[in-house]
Amino acid sequence: MTPVTPLRPLVFFFPLLGGGCIDYATLSSGFIGCPPQFITVDNEEQHLGTRSWEATCMKKKYQCSFASGTAASCVEMKWKTSDTQP
Q: Is the pLDDT of residue 7 over 80?
């Protein structure tokens, strides 16, 4: 029988700790009703198992986020009167 080294669990769980790459446009697509190729993603942030980003499509901007173990969500952001729409 081969002994198990202590590093194997760390390698196995590495993607769960944020080591994987996330396609935010594809993740946002189902929530905002826009194909991923028409979505631009800005202001990506990651903090202790949570991620947030802004997705823009067809002059509408959305604040999206998700935490480990939960589903993602996106909410349309309202433009301020001082903002210019792209």
A: no
